[in-house]
Amino acid sequence: MTDSSKRKIRMGMVGGGEGAFIGAVHRMAARLDGDIELVCGAFSGDADKSRQFGESLNLAPSRCYGSYEAMMREEAALPASEKMDFVAVVTPNHLHFPVAKLALEQGFHVMSDKPATFSYQEALQLKKTVDDTQRLYGLTHVYTAYPMIREAQAKVQNGELGAIRKMVVEYSQGWLASKEAEDGKQAKWRLDPSKAGVSCCMGDIGVHAANLVEFVSGLQITAICADLTSVVPGRRLDDDGTVLLQFDNGSKGVLLASQIATGEENNLHLRIYGDKASIEWRQMSPNTLILRDLHGHAQHIRSGVGALHPQTHSAMRLPAGHPEGYLEAFGNLYAAFAHAIHEYNSTDKAARQFVPGINEALRGMAFIEQVVEASNQHVKWCELKQGRTV
């Protein structure tokens, strides 16, 4: 619920113009609770298109900028009562770092789409800028904000699963299964190394899976064995991959990510096995968390039903039986970020724990680059010796 005693947080946006999927999602999520209003933007690398798109959103023409550099400069010169409070960065990957860095240096908080930067070295520079400016930095690992994921995390933290032994996380999509898919705007930049970075599939969705398994388990990935593939001929970046994982408690896991899994939509699937119980969650059925014990009993825990942990309740918006999903989870991140901005100068830092930040940014970029590096090492493969056939 919106606190009427607080003013709305003013948001600017870089990227997210015509034909951009994620920009519209950010705008819808940001206004979901009425805490945030979009006041300005640089929505395209084409100055005319940027201004036209901004005006189509009913923004003041004077605040529809032709470039993000002009936007930062001119917004910084406005009175404190008018200028934006933070910038949402929703560009292709290669622009995440320069936009975020300039925004932080101009005194603005930043909410960025993932991955945080183009490279791990840029992520290190970004962390230094965050530390130097002491501005807030958020990263939209949206799946951490689903109610049942918060419930899963609480159950692990409370020891209900016991010692964690095994984890399996899968993120399968089929939208890049055909060669023809490459003609789309979203595919073109994701498959272009100059804009996406060293990875397509792992950089786009694999990093979400890695972040989710660490978030829920509270453990960190310490070693990997990876195999990435460009299945569709002619692609310069991976569209499919498998990663074996080792965690800091000695447990093992598997991460599967694919964008050529024909027929799949957005199948993010998490399983965590402890020595007392296990949990299972699917993004395609987000309101259900399955808890299984050693004796074969399975409990289907539903959002809004029964005794749930406080952190789960904080992520719920609707009564039981009213599906909540992607937009609401995105809204949870933005609501927490808005609250953190309101409380920026106070000692109340509670809201910040619900928004992935610069540490998750560093881990994400390290994961992406090291998975690619590990995949290029062939010493991990052992040939299967042929037995004698009769």
Label this structure with key terms:
390 residues, alpha/beta, Rossmann fold, Dihydrodipicolinate Reductase, domain 2, 2 domains, 8-stranded mixed sheet, 5-stranded parallel sheet, 13 strands, 22% strand, globular, Gfo/Idh/MocA_oxidoreduct, signal, NAD(P)-bd_dom_sf, Gfo/Idh/MocA family oxidoreductase
Mean pLDDT: 95
Strand content: 15-25%
Helix content: 25-40%
Terminal CA distance? 73 Å
Structural class: alpha/beta
Low-confidence stretches: none
CATH topology of the largest domain: the name is: Dihydrodipicolinate Reductase, domain 2
List the total number of helices: 12
Enumerate the strands of the largest sheet in spatial order, edge to edge or round the barrel: 7-8-9-6-10-11-12-13
Query: What is the overall shape?
Result: globular
Q: How many β-strands, per DSSP?
A: 13
What's the structural blueprint in terms of helices and strands?
Layout: E1 9-15, H1 21-30, E2 36-42, H2 47-56, H3 68-76, E3 86-90, H4 96-105, E4 109-112, H5 120-133, E5 137-139, H6 147-157, E6 164-172, H7 185-190, H8 193-196, H9 201-217, E7 221-229, E8 240-247, E9 252-258, E10 267-274, E11 277-282, E12 288-293, E13 298-302, H10 310-313, H11 326-342, H12 358-375
Parallel strand pairs: 1-2, 1-3, 3-4, 4-5, 6-9
Antiparallel strand pairs: 6-10, 7-8, 8-9, 10-11, 11-12, 12-13
Helix pairs in contact: 1-11, 4-5, 5-12, 9-12
